[in-house]
Write a structure and sequence with these properties.
The protein is α/β, with parallel strands linked by helices. 44% of the residues lie in helices and 18% in strands. The chain contains 11 helices and 10 strands.
């Protein structure tokens, strides 16, 4: 059984199956586009992987409100009632609609503002959106691609943001100054969720997760697209996060 971390009376699983391969993220190259074509609009296919990952020990999913992801997460939650949904807003806004309501509707426990919003560091906008998430009864958070700039801003402005999704991996890829970010994360009493922890497949799970365990990382989200990949990755993650 996976360990759940208590965050504001919510039980948050320490391992989730991520979304990035389904989205065709650029760091995955051609395979990202293949995965996007195969999964992006196929709720049942994604849900099957989520349920399989749940049965292996990953107790939740991190999704964005795009394609069939929310539908897939709801299918998985129906089959596995303890399945936990974490959500991130889209990277774009259409007439100031950030899809927060969509994530509330599927009962996402934490709602992260996408890095394209957070990393602009617009105080009034961030304060208003984080307040909206809080008033909806959800835990507000931010995702960031520039953690060394955005996290100090969040702290300085005393924004209501107890959860942060950020790149964190052994190779220091996407992290900026790795040592400085390690020290920043380890010095703060926040719920840090690691993304890009395998550095787009460059780091083996048995090397990636022990590194996370050495730092103040509360949970990890990993993109996985095959049952074998899920078995191998979750088994290694459980050694650190169980």
């Amino acid at each position: 059984m996976m360990v759940f971390i208590e965050l504001e009376s919510q039980k948050i699983p320490r391992i989730t199956i991520g979304t990035s391969p389904f989205m065709g993220a650029g760091q995955f190259g051609r395979m990202g586009r293949v995965w996007r074509s195969e999964f992006f609009q196929n709720a049942e296919k994604m849900a099957n992987l989520m349920v399989y990952s749940y049965n292996q020990g990953a107790r939740g999913v991190e999704v964005i409100p795009a394609g069939a992801m929310l539908q897939a997460a709801l299918i998985a939650k129906e089959k596995c009632p303890e399945f936990t949904i974490l959500g991130s807003t889209l990277w774009e806004r259409i007439e100031n609609y950030f899809h927060i309501d969509d994530l509330v509707e599927v009962d996402a426990k934490i709602i992260f503002l996408h890095g394209s919003i957070s990393d602009n560091r617009e105080y009034n906008l961030l304060k208003a959106l984080l307040k909206k998430i809080r008033l909806a009864g959800k835990i507000p958070g931010i995702a960031t691609h520039y953690p060394l700039e955005t996290i100090p801003f969040i702290r300085e402005k005393k924004l209501d943001c107890p959860a942060i999704l950020l790149p964190f991996n052994l190779n220091g890829e996407f992290m900026g100054n790795q040592k400085a970010l390690e020290e920043l994360v380890d010095s703060m009493d926040l719920f840090f969720v690691a993304m890009k922890s395998l550095a787009a497949g460059k780091i083996l799970p048995n090397k990636a997760f022990p590194y996370l365990g050495e730092h103040n990382i509360s949970a990890v989200t990993v993109g996985m697209v095959t049952e074998k990949e899920i078995e191998e990755t979750v088994a290694e993650a459980k050694k650190v996060f169980s």
